[in-house]
Amino acid sequence: MKVTNYIRICRFLTVDIFEYRAMKYFLLAMYLILSPLILLQGYFFLKKFELKYFVQYATIYMLSIYIWVSIYCQPHTTNIAKTYIDQIQVWKIEDATDRIKRKVKQTWIYITAYSCTITALGFICAISYTVPTPRDKDLIFFFKIVELYFPQWENFIVWCLKPTFFVSIYVAISTPIFTILYFNGHLKLQKLMLRHCLKDINAKFKHLEYIRWNNVEYHREIEEKLMFCVKRHVQLIENGSRPLRLTQVYVLPFQIMGTCVMASILLVFFAFEGSLSDQYFRVVVLVLTTSAMLVGFAAGGQGIEDWSEEIYEALCQVEWYHWNLKNKKTYLFFLMNVTRKFKIKYSENISLNYRLGLEVVKAIFSAMSVIYSLQQKKYS
């Protein structure tokens, strides 16, 4: 399969699927339904707060808020992918060498495989919640509301809500993880092409030790190639900074809500009063899906951060010591520019990367161990 086919698959999953009018209306209807239901559940929690009921309904409540945020942000993240990411394509795949094409294809294969795998996990998760169990009303507060206020329409309303799980979970998965990965895929080609140009600066001159300092042709060609690389790097940074800044705005609430969802799953699993034996499959699939989402966030952020680091490493390997003073100054300016990292950051010390993902996992496991210890003391 060609590289362009993998790009089209990823673009469809990230952008094109949300361009259908039916999908837009469906998401709008879900947004309008979810908003009062979330407010109503929050009102009941505040009106008569009991830890037992909060633990029961926490997971689906947090997940509902995550889905609500996803639907709200979806037009914005889709617009980022559709409008701004396309501007990054300074080099096209047709311009690349066969070696670069193979590397880019490998990246897009990984992105496509991840996107399809996590989408399949999400749909399995949706199926698990669509199949009724005796404990549904003890875990999904919306079903409890329907039972209390619309008993005569209960079955009809519940079965109307259940098909929406598939679209809800897909939106929650694809926004903004697929946008970040789609961004990464395009950055990969630009990075490899720029590195190729940097390695090619001295390519014409095989034996640099025999180059004379007054060789005008040599210094002129170095100047042209070096200035091309500088301009191309500036162009990439300018085109990539806009979608990156916009993505940063939307990533933080998803990261926070995703962590809350995982924490609430553990809270239900360890603190729920009663047996959850019939819910194990749901819990396992939901944990796998949320864990895969966390990996997607971390890998996407790390890929963006690695972009500037690899350009810096390639630039450091350039043999500059035979250049004239003017080219050395240009090289130094370029080197200083590349040291500014291109990344999704929440503050000066916190960025979206593997380290942050590891810290989130540590925090969740710490919370799990505390809850487990409390449970052991309670029953000892």
From TrEMBL:
The keyword Transit peptide does not apply. Keywords: Cell membrane, Membrane, Olfaction, Receptor, Sensory transduction, Transducer, Transmembrane, Transmembrane helix. InterPro entries: 7tm6_olfct_rcpt. One of its GO terms (cellular component) is plasma membrane. It is a multi-pass membrane protein. It comes from the Eukaryota. One of its GO terms (biological process) is signal transduction. Its main location: membrane. The keyword Lipoprotein does not apply. The chain crosses the membrane at residues 25-45, 51-73, 108-131, 156-183, 249-273, 279-299. GO terms for molecular function: odorant binding; olfactory receptor activity. It is found in: Cell membrane. Belongs to the insect chemoreceptor superfamily. Heteromeric odorant receptor channel (TC 1.A.69) family. This is Odorant receptor. It comes from Zophobas morio.
